[in-house]
Amino acid sequence: MLEQRIQQHFIDSADLKYQAAQTLSTPIAAAVQAMLACVTSGGKVLACGNGASAAEAQQFAAFCVAGFERERPELAAMALTADSTLLTAGPGGAQDPGSQQFARQVRALGQAGDLLLALSVSGNDANLLAATEAAHERDMTVVVLTGRNGGQLGAVLRETDVLISVPHDRAARVREVHALVLHCLCDGVDAQLLGEQEIPL
To answer: Any bridge partners for residue 153, and if so which?
Structure first.
């Protein structure tokens, strides 16, 4: 019984990835081009997310800086800190709403030409909505990875932004596809910078 349940996870994950491949390839390609334009013009990528998505943002930034599967010069990217306790204390110790934790970092670090990568399963995280607004104030491009129908984040994006929305309701499935999308972004940028080539096994 347990083995069948485990096998079903693999089957469901594979089915979703197969179905999403055609739907998501166009927005992923647009996100690659946006990232490429950012890093080749001296900009940087700021990545953020909550919970498990925060870990994915950190991993993505590490791939940009340290390399993905091929040797290349470092790309300017960093994951914004998800520890709200570090960013909520205002002057005199007054507490600022945690919904501003990412927005403050975007306003402090972001510049025109930079890119914000926001990861959210629901698309309704208040702190990511605030970060998106801050990025727009800084004339940054925003790329959002979400699930379901894109949520509130999908609704506030501009024409120059990119929405990559995984068509599924289950958080675990959405995160699995998000991981693959991040790999596609890294590989796509490398292919554009270094040329396409087979990756040795």
So the answer is: none
